[in-house]
Specification:
There is one protein chain. This protein is an all-alpha fold. Helix 6 packs antiparallel against helix 7. The chain is about 70% helix and about 0% strand. The chain is elongated, with a radius of gyration of 21 Å. The chain has two domains: about 10-55, no CATH class; about 75-235, no CATH class. The chain contains eight helices and no strands.
Length: about 240
């Protein structure tokens, strides 16, 4: 889409729902007040049109590449925290606000949104606790194990990783089931014909959320956790 100063906010949001994040961060109404041209909005906000244009044109770009499977465990942990955990802490409140708005405005005509809201609320609560448990318990232990390797020292405490790893994997399974339910309720994230831009943006955001969480879980379940358990056994031997 060719974005000019005369392009309307709503037209940009409709053409590329990924731009909705940009509008939300800048406090720009893309839904009910979205018929205004970008130049007018920028003047009102004291923003540079060029800067906004560049941000809008770059929306929905490639996600950072996952660390290599043999990367240091500390590097993998940092990537998970800085990319996936930080992303969730930004997206969960944003999506939660959109869910509440869509439920309030469209809930009567689309009763499936009520189930969607309940499923998302439960998933959000579990994920927020999940992040804290990883950052406060499991990840510091992973970093400690790798530090022992660098120091050439053995593990002198009883093995510990299996418990928290098992708990995290169980919660990953719960999250996977919730994601499957969200996809079912949204018909594969296809917005209804009468959807406003907030409704469309919600479905787009949930689909991106699902893809990112699948990558997150893959990196932990299939790379970080098995390597941590193996390293712990080697240090304890």
């Amino acid at each position: 889409m060719n974005i000019t100063p005369e392009t309307r906010v709503a037209d940009v949001a409709t053409a590329n729902p990924a731009t909705i994040k940009i509008f939300q961060r800048q406090g720009i109404d893309f839904c009910c007040g979205g018929k205004r041209p970008l130049a007018e909005v920028c003047e009102e906000k004291g923003m540079s049109f060029r800067a906004l244009q560049e941000a809008l044109e770059g929306a929905g770009g490639e996600a950072p590449q996952l660390p290599a499977g043999d990367a240091p465990l500390t590097e993998i942990v940092r990537f998970v925290v800085d990319h996936f955990h930080a992303g969730l802490r930004e997206e969960l409140p944003r999506l939660g606000e959109m869910v509440a708005k869509v439920l309030n405005v469209h809930g009567e005509r689309h009763p499936e949104v009520k189930d969607l809201a309940a499923t998302f609320r439960a998933l959000r609560e579990e994920l927020e606790m999940h992040l804290l448990k990883e950052e406060r318990v499991l990840f510091p232990y992973v970093e400690r194990l790798e530090a022992l390797v660098l120091q050439g020292r053995p593990l002198t405490t009883p093995p510990f990783a299996d418990g928290p790893i098992g708990a995290m994997e169980h919660e990953h399974d719960d999250a996977g089931r919730a994601l499957a339910r969200l996809r079912e309720l949204t018909g594969g994230y296809v917005p209804p014909a009468d959807a406003c831009n907030t409704f469309r943006g919600l479905y787009h955001g949930l689909e991106e959320f699902e893809a990112a969480l699948h990558q997150h879980i893959h990196l932990e379940n299939n790379v970080l956790f098995p390597r941590t358990a193996r390293l712990e056994r080697e240090l304890a031997a």
